[in-house]
Fold each of these.
Amino acid sequence: MFNGAVRMRKIIPNKDVEVCGGIREEPMIEVGPDKGVKDAAVYLVGVAKGKPWPPAAKKPELDNVKCRFEPDVQIIPTGTLDVVNKDPVLHNTHGYYGKRTAFNMALPNQGQDISTELTRPGAVRVDCDAHGWMEGWIYVVDNPYYAITGADGKFTIADVPPGEYDLVAIQSFTGPVQQKVTVEAGKPTDLTIELKK
Ligand SMILES: [Cu+2]
């Protein structure tokens, strides 16, 4: 949930407008009617064992589409990420762990696909050195207990072994919150997490 004021950011494309679109405003956090936050990442930290990873539907991929990142928020396991340019313009996709570069690649051609390795868990901010307004987030995790919230802000993390855990919820505008959660055998644990700016 987010109870604060939703701030807007103005996007003013200064090049490639035929692909990237024109001037517009976008909310920095998407909040539904019941204050639920869409596209927040939620995950447990430091879980050493438990359920197996779900079979991957496809390889983790970050697409540049109409000068946006698609998806703009995703959670991936440590390992390979494919970065794809679907636009007929140059993108220079640049990922950071904090201030440190995680990857930096020029993709001048439409259909170009370069893979990179994200070996460390954590938040990776992605921007484009060619289009300063582009922003995406990749949360790299080392265990399969994670979820992205839906449009109503809800999420489920299934099959968590009984125990006490640290849970992180994060959204790019608010930043992270961390809280303890205790899971008992055979029954669901209901949580309300408030993201604050
Ligand atoms: Cu770009």
Amino acid sequence: MSFINYSSREINCKIVYYGPGLCGKTTNLQYIYAKTNPDAKGKMISLATETERTLFFDFLPLSLGEIRGFKTRFHLYTVPGQVFYDASRKLILKGVDGVVFVADSQDARMDANLESIRNLKENLREHGVAFDKVPYVLQLNKRDLPTAVPVSEIEKALRLKNEPVFEAVACRGTGVFETLKAVVKTVLMDLNSR
Ligand SMILES: Nc1nc2c(ncn2[C@@H]2O[C@H](COP(=O)(O)OP(=O)(O)OP(=O)(O)O)[C@@H](O)[C@H]2O)c(=O)[nH]1
Ligand SMILES: [Mg+2]
């Protein structure tokens, strides 16, 4: 739930990058961090294993200018994708304002994508957030791999609510800012409609 502080004139929003293990969630945040102007970003915090798998979360605070005199701050989080870290995933979703689902385009990861969306829906529901209502963007990552499933086929399986879809190669930065802009826009529109 976004937090509006009237005395300091700030809007704080929480965006969570969700998806199966190794789909590229941390890579999205690393690219955003690397390409963002120093005055617009805070310190990126990554709690990872020695093999670079996210252990708890990554966190990156961004300031994205003002709307109607309010400073907007977006707190970007990733969840750990590995199946057994479900308690952490659930905790990180608390108070979420927008979700980016990062799908792994590889054929062999389609079941993992489906399972992760199912898990997302369940964890949202436990926080009393309806999947159908939450601001949501689908990113099809790893489009560079030869085993990538055609976009139309992935959409048929994973695009569940007419959400914006972006193709990405996160390790090169392709599609990363397009995805971020779309989720920010959707969150702000949602805020405006309340
Ligand atoms: N070929 C290819 N590799 C990618 C792409 N995006 C990320 N990777 C690689 O995929 C691996 C996993 O990326 P991460 O960002 O750590 O994945 P994650 O989703 O954070 O994984 P967990 O933290 O375990 O949930 C890394 O080696 C990345 O460099 C992509 O678009 N194409
Ligand atoms: Mg990660």
